[in-house]
């Protein structure tokens, strides 16, 4: 007596070994090429020392002109905080055109009442004395004082 063994019906799928799996290599190669280009660009742009030093004298004259025009005969009021913000942005925008794009600019403007008041300001940062610098201007009239400090930090 012979036993019959059960055989499953034939599958219509091809065996795994004969299947062709296509990978989208074009997008991978494009991304690799873009990454290589970015690395090359950054290496070419790396410049540890600026071509030109930051023009401190010119920046000081710009700061002085902007502050004197804006605050010449102004009296101290609570609205001075908005004036300080606007003045800070104006100084930064004016100085951006004078220096190379590698300098990051930070501008601080403090306005205070000039009536029996005292103010002490300080700042700390990581600093490279060969490339980084600052410029400051102190303005006074009969009613208020203004301290403007512009930091120029060189980005390699």
From TrEMBL:
This is Dynein light chain Tctex-type 5. Gene3D superfamilies: Tctex-1. Belongs to the dynein light chain Tctex-type family. GO terms for biological process: microtubule-based movement. The lineage of its organism: Eukaryota, Metazoa, Chordata, Craniata, Vertebrata. GO terms for molecular function: dynein intermediate chain binding. InterPro entries: Tctex-1-like, Tctex-1-like_sf. It comes from the Eukaryota. It holds the Pfam family Tctex-1. GO terms for cellular component: cytoplasm; cytoplasmic dynein complex. Residues 1-20 are annotated as: Disordered.
């Amino acid at each position: 007596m012979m036993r019959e063994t059960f055989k499953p019906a034939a599958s219509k799928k091809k065996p795994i070994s004969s299947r062709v799996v296509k990978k989208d290599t074009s997008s991978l190669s494009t991304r690799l090429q873009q990454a290589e280009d970015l690395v090359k660009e950054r290496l070419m742009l790396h410049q540890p020392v600026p071509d030109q030093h930051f023009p401190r004298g010119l920046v000081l004259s710009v700061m002085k002109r902007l502050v004197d025009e804006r605050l010449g005969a102004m009296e101290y009021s609570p609205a001075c905080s908005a004036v300080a913000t606007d003045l800070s942005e104006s100084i930064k925008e004016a100085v951006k055109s004078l220096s190379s794009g590698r300098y990051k600019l930070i501008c601080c403007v403090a306005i205070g009442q000039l009536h029996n008041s005292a103010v002490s300001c300080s700042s700390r940062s990581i600093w490279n004395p060969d490339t980084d610098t600052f410029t400051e201007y102190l303005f006074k009239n009969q009613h208020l004082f203004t301290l403007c400090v512009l930091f120029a930090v060189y980005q390699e």
